[in-house]
Amino acid sequence: MKSFEIAGIEVPNRYIQAPLAGYTSYPMRHMAYKFGCGLAYTEMVSCNALIYNNEKTIKMLPQFKEEGLVALQLFGGDINTVLSALDIVQVLPMHYDFLDFNFGCPVQKVLKQGAGSKWLERLDEMYELLRLLTSKSIKPVICKIRLGFKDFNYLQVAKLCEDAGVKAIAVHGRTQKEGFAGEVHYSKIREIKNEISIPVIANGNISSDNILEVGNLTASDAFMIGRAAIGNPKIFKDLIDIENGVAPSNKDIHKQAELCLEHLEYEIKDKGEHLACEIMRGISAMYFKGFVDSKTIRTKLVNCSSYEDYCSVLLPLIQSA
Predict the structure, then answer these.
(1) pTM of whole model > 0.90?
(2) So what's the pLDDT on residue 166?
(3) Which positions are catalytic?
């Protein structure tokens, strides 16, 4: 199994859990680590919220040493605000391995702040921000980009990141304008890989079904898995198995029920029963996606509002194994 390095830190394999708003808090990272994920990201953390000491945002920060490597992802649209947020982050009792900055988010509520992929329209400011971040951060700085805002400018952006001292970049193979729909331009990620010397992480619709093709098309150092990992932490083991020439095992509905219950229990420890049960409605249903006749199970799960409710659905599945 191949590994790779970011700023001299060895990442044990090439399969990375993407940052997903509303999902990749510690419980989901725990499930990813359980199946061999090489590096996991936090959710996007707002720099504006950090400087206003928003309690919910502070709780999103990695509070303790986790089972694997973790990247703390920040987003913001103003250089001074971002640097002030970094000052706060660096004095808090936290444990993270990389500082990631988001230049890729395409959603309007982020763009209105001048954040996310909006930076790709103002490259001089982007370079200034990265030079200041890389000189000030106590952790290696990495970043996540898209291929451009409306138009492609990915080679210019990638070279800018490298010149500013960034140690690795994750590239979603679409522009902001393309959002999450349509073709992922994997060949353009390969162009970036050919242009720069720092590690390149491919992102965009990657799954166990296309990982070999994406590897051939991008020649990337690593691969970032997003929505395909929701309710499917086993995907990281599947990807490792595929790399090792081993056919992945089929998902088992009884094992999925066990994993879903474990995920729920970690969410409850992290957020309390009420919020955890609310969050898990959508996630729990994804644990059973693709199983024949699972509609009844998924319908029951999306209506659960307590730990007891979830147990009434999941325990019979576990016990029938």
Answers:
(1) yes
(2) 98
(3) 105
